[in-house]
């Protein structure tokens, strides 16, 4: 059982986001009135003099849009802990060769997770789904728990109804209140079968296959200082899903061969094979979880980083698999007494496999599944204040890991 240190970044975040020292103003370009005053390049919203002035004021009329965010530890916060257990059976099946079966269990408790606790209860809202151009209705709808209500009557803030009302927070004078809670948990189970031949007669070999499953419910110890990643603060258990590190299948093969030296009776073979060493590592694994996100604030909580494709859990998709072969070749050359040259040739991804991947963020693999457009749409005789827009290439890899790389080296040993 291990107790985990609380990262210092949490103390720093609480010290800076105290609701007093820092403030921010948010303008929504889809809002009619915000759009009229939205700054355009190169004119800033606030023009601060290049002096020792420590603060400068917003123009008149903007003070109502200023908010202060707050971060704090929950009153019942406790230190996170991890429980770990393992069991291994190993048997020698031949000279210098063993077969092993091992099981590993890791359970994380009281892990850190942030919730925005300054939100009203959500209400289910339904929006139509259009194609990637935003013009052709696809015949479907997405329903999301929204923290803002709709308005169907014309007003100063809603000149063209229906509209989505501004977020009404319980404590209106503050923005988000991110409470760091020790409420998340994780479970990791791993089963590994391995064959291991220890170095003998110049040869080493290890084969290993692992089946594992890692799940958690939204711990965010690595992203403190960012907005809370929980999509619905009233249903944090809905975050339970595959961990960002989850990989179900993984195979690793490693070998090293250094032929024993041939002596004078095998002069030709000795000249060709002596002082060579070859080693390699082959790695292959199944795809890792991908989180399908929404471009836009579909749940209207003023947080653009926690919106997921409606109807799917966190990390609900799987990304591309991965395989790579690395190789090293070493040739020793005896120059003189006490002097030796070593020529090395190293290759990463020897076969130049196209290991495609999805965008990597601090929260894991992420792909944009749809766009939430806050603009009126008319479908089947009903006006909606917003709609979803399908992407053109959902789950299409947009990057790749390193291609084949070769490195040559020469070392003098004396």
Architecture overview:
The protein is mostly beta strands. The protein has one domain. 5% of the residues lie in helices and 47% in strands. The protein contains 3 helices and 27 strands. Strands 1, 4, 5, 6, 11, 12, 13, 14, 15, 18, 19 and 27 form a 12-stranded mixed β-sheet that branches. Strand 21 (359-361) and strand 22 form a beta hairpin. The longest helix has 9 residues, at 8-16. The protein is elongated. 22% of the residues are buried.
Which features would summarize this protein structure in a list?
5% helix, elongated, twelve-stranded mixed beta sheet, single chain, 3 helices, 414 residues, mainly beta
Write the layout of secondary structure elements.
Layout: E1 2-3, H1 8-16, E2 24-25, H2 32-37, E3 66-67, E4 70-73, E5 81-94, E6 97-116, E7 123-130, E8 137-146, E9 150-151, E10 163-164, E11 177-200, E12 203-216, E13 241-242, E14 249-257, H3 267-273, E15 276-285, E16 289-295, E17 317-318, E18 322-336, E19 339-348, E20 356-357, E21 359-361, E22 364-373, E23 377-379, E24 382-384, E25 387-389, E26 399-400, E27 405-413
Parallel strand pairs: 4-11, 7-25, 16-22
Antiparallel strand pairs: 1-5, 2-3, 5-6, 6-11, 7-8, 9-10, 11-12, 12-13, 12-14, 14-15, 15-18, 16-17, 18-19, 19-27, 20-26, 21-22, 22-25, 23-24
């Amino acid at each position: 059982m291990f107790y985990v240190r609380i990262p210092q970044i949490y103390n720093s975040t609480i010290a800076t986001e105290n609701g007093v020292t820092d403030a921010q103003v948010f303008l929504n370009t889809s809002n009619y009135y915000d759009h009229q005053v939205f700054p355009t390049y190169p004119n800033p919203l606030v023009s601060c003099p290049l002096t020792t002035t420590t603060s400068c004021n917003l123009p008149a009329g903007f003070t109502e849009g200023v908010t202060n965010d707050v971060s704090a530890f929950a009153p019942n916060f406790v230190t996170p802990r991890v429980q770990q257990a393992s069991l291994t059976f190993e048997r020698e099946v031949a000279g210098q060769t063993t077969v092993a079966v091992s099981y590993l269990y890791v359970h994380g408790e009281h892990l850190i997770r942030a919730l925005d606790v300054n939100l009203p209860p959500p209400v289910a809202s339904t929006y139509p789904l259009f194609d990637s151009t935003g013009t052709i209705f696809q015949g479907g709808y997405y329903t999301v728990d929204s923290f803002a209500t709709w308005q169907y009557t014309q007003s100063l803030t809603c000149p063209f109804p229906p509209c989505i009302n501004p977020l009404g927070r319980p404590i209106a004078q503050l923005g988000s209140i991110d409470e760091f809670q020790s409420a998340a948990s994780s479970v990791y189970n791993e089963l590994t079968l391995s064959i291991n031949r220890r170095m003998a007669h110049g040869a080493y070999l290890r084969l290993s296959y692992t089946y594992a499953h890692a799940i958690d419910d939204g711990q965010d110890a690595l992203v403190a200082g960012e907005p809370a990643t929980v999509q619905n603060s009233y249903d944090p258990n809905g975050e339970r899903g595959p961990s960002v590190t989850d990989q179900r299948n993984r195979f690793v093969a490693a070998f090293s061969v250094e032929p024993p030296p041939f002596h004078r009776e095998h002069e030709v073979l000795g000249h060709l094979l002596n002082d060579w060493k070859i080693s390699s590592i082959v790695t292959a694994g199944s795809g890792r979880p991908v989180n399908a996100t929404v471009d836009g604030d579909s749940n209207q909580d003023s947080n653009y980083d926690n919106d997921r494709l409606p109807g799917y859990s966190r990390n609900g998709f799987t990304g591309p698999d991965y395989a790579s072969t690395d190789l090293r070749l070493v040739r020793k050359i005896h120059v003189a007494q006490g002097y030796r040259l070593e020529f090395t040739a190293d290759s990463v991804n020897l076969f130049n496999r196209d290991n495609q991947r999805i965008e990597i963020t601090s929260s894991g693999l992420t792909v944009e599944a749809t766009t939430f457009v806050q603009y009126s749409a008319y479908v089947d005789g009903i006006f909606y204040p917003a709609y979803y827009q399908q992407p053109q290439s959902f789950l299409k890899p947009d990057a790749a890991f390193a291609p084949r790389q070769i490195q040559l080296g020469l070392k003098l040993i004396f």
